[in-house]
UniProtKB/TrEMBL annotation:
The record marks 111 as: Important for acyl-CoA specificity. This is Homoserine O-acetyltransferase. One of its GO terms (molecular function) is homoserine O-acetyltransferase activity. Its main location: cytoplasm. Substrate binds at residues 163, 192, 249. It comes from Enterococcus caccae ATCC BAA-1240. Keywords: Acyltransferase, Amino-acid biosynthesis, Cytoplasm, Methionine biosynthesis, Transferase. It comes from the Bacteria. Transfers an acetyl group from acetyl-CoA to L-homoserine, forming acetyl-L-homoserine. One of its GO terms (biological process) is L-methionine biosynthetic process from homoserine via O-succinyl-L-homoserine and cystathionine. Its EC number is 2.3.1.31.
């Protein structure tokens, strides 16, 4: 499908090498259709990598999508240039009067901090509140999922005994949900986090349902019963090498990390990791776009008010 993005976004070069159809603004302006309006709030440090990962996954339906990026102006990015942010990203004050079919909120490496201690928490609360009336469906990832559950439903995270990292098997608990159409009973997904959420806390909220769970990694996917919000605690968007890069980064920091589970063949760092989750990733994001967003969002987005 065509993804419509800013003409000179560096991610375009990577995606075109993978034969992914990327449409720049100039060409899209000549197509007489209404594209889906998707906003990505990118909280990850290496924003360029996350841009490629998410745009790749949004490319798997025949829908035309207009993608815009948002960053928190109350936080100073250390791993992405101000030039890149100024050129390709909006600030919240610049989009708060706009409406979107879908919003993706990424993870962030701040999970060991109380939510209120995160320097952009107040601004993020504003995004969460705004999304209720200006976004049709929101997909939250990892810390973004924990933050969303905390803000919207007062479900707090808890600290794990050690970092959960690796590739884990997951059971589909709610196969009748449209976002899980086409899934096998079991699939694999990466996790990389120090905190989690408890099943008991989610079950206490009438509006929510646990859709996917792992015996070893816990809850993976929670859905709001109105299809307006989904919360994924793992990282299906990760590339083959992402967990390896995080492991090596932690080694350099002197953290002495444990090997990601079920990742390196025979736990041998000299063997390239097996890619076992991209099929599930493509299907999950395609289903979200098709069933939760496209087939339900109003043509006139101002009807969300």
């Amino acid at each position: 499908m065509p993804i419509r993005v800013p003409k000179e976004l560096p991610a375009i070069k990577v995606l075109r090498k993978e034969n992914i159809f990327v449409m720049d603004e100039d060409r899209a302006m000549h197509q007489d259709i209404r594209p889906l309006e998707i906003l990505i709030l990118n909280l990850m440090p290496k924003k360029n990598e996350t841009e490629v990962q998410l745009l790749r996954l949004l490319s798997n339906t025949p829908l035309q999508i207009n993608v815009e990026f948002l960053h928190m102006s109350s936080h100073e990015a250390k791993n992405t240039s101000s030039e890149h942010l100024n050129r390709f990203y909006y600030r919240f004050k610049e989009v708060r009067d706009k409406f979107y079919d879908g919003l993706i909120i990424t993870g962030a490496p701040v999970e060991q901090m109380p939510f209120e201690d995160v320097d952009y928490w107040e601004e993020l609360e504003g995004v969460f509140e705004w999304s209720k009336s200006h976004v049709f469906s929101t997909f939250h990832i990892c810390w973004g999922a924990q933050a969303g559950l905390y803000y919207h439903h007062r479900i707090d995270k808890y600290l794990l005994d050690q970092k959960l990292t690796g590739i884990y098997a997951h059971d589909v608990l709610a196969p009748t949900w449209s976002i899980l159409k086409g899934f096998d009973d079991l699939f694999f997904a990466p996790h990389s986090r120090y905190t989690g959420i408890k099943r008991h806390d989610v079950d206490q909220v009438e509006a929510l349902e646990v859709l996917v769970e792992s015996k070893d990694a816990g809850i993976f996917l929670v859905g709001n019963k109105n299809n307006r919000a989904f919360y994924a605690t793992g990282h299906l968007e990760y590339d083959r090498e992402t967990l390896q890069q995080e492991f090596e980064r932690d080694q350099l920091k002197g953290i002495h990390p444990k090997l990601p589970r079920n990742y390196f063949p025979n736990d041998n760092l000299d063997e390239p990791p097996k890619l076992r989750w991209h099929m599930a990733a493509s299907l999950l994001f395609s289903n979200w776009l098709n069933y939760a967003v496209y087939q339900n969002t109003p043509y006139d987005l101002t009807e969300l008010l």
